[in-house]
Give the backbone structure.
Amino acid sequence: MKTILSGIFAAAFALSASAAAQAQDKAPLKIGGILDMSSLYADITGPGSETAAKMAVEDFGGEVLGRKIQVLAADHQNKADLSANIARDMLDNQGVEMIYDVAASATALAAGEIAKARNKIIIFNGPGSIRLTNEACGPYTIHYVFDTYGQANVTGLAAVKSGLDSWYFLTADYAFGQDLEKDTSAVVTKTGGKVLGSVRHPLNTSDFSSFLLQAQASKAKVIGLANAGGDTVNAIKQAAEFGITKGGQKVSPLLAFVTDIDSIGLETAQGLLLAEAFYWDLNDDTRAFSKRFQERVKRPPTSAQAGVYSSVTHYLKAVKAAGTTDAATVMKVMKETPINDFFAKGGKIREDGRMIHDMYLFEVKKPSESKVRWDDYKLLATVPGSEAFQSLEQSRCPLVKK
């Protein structure tokens, strides 16, 4: 009798364990966005990036490997320590398998270290610092949309070649701004131009008057803005108010998005040269996605938000193909599989995590050239990814075999 009871209890325990395992298998697959929801990069990433991730999940069918897909999002408030804490909580306590976007460079560098220590995939869409694919690279990090090297290479090269060969920089004093100034300076000097100086400004500056006056006094042909978001918008507006552009100096935003140009207005922004990874009005595919996005967000997507949709979709396809969420297995599939969608044609994730794709050089239209709101850019050049981004030979990523 005792033996029979032991057998019954053993069978019951086995069934219970099996049921628990099946329930665990059917737990939601969670992906987490660490975003700027409320500060100077909120328009670039923020709620729009969360929406893009949710659209990707819906279009994928809402589940993979029999598991519902759940999109989480949290506000890092542009604080690196908060970003690290959010990443830690998502990965350790909430069961998140992949982190997307991370918005700014300092916050991305912090979250990247947490993901690296836990062998989890993290995809950077909004951050730009080249450090993310150099010293801070990891086996599970992907830099998807743009970086400071690509922005500098596309914009700086075009400007110097057109005769704009003396530069002065207004630089946001953190990782992204410093890298953008450094990378653009290298392009300017390599192409035969001169850097006459630079000044650092705090993040989220409202008054650029003293910085702009220093730039004006330098008599540089170009005032390069090594900043982003609200800082770029404020600097361009105030440069116009001070009559700097009317005085003959060009202002070059080294990272700007269509939302920034809309905030500035074409009257002030016309003629600006800028590099972008995506524009809503490039072709039928970009227009189709942007129309659906705009129905939800009431404006077109930025390149970062379009990149979120593309990268989340690429990740989910890889999970399905791999038959697992194991990071190493999924990452192998992601790197082996070309990316062909509205965001990139023939895109490829390299061993250092850099996603290689075409970049575009645009000129901001005059008000008379724009037909409707958001019709802001004229395409000047398409730059192949192999020319726009840092080569593997130049890479300082420890993963790259030389």
Q: What stands out?
A: Confidence is low (pLDDT under 50) at residues 1-24. The chain has two domains: 29-146+282-358, 149-280+359-385. Residues 29-146+282-358 form a domain with the Rossmann fold fold (CATH 3.40.50.2300).
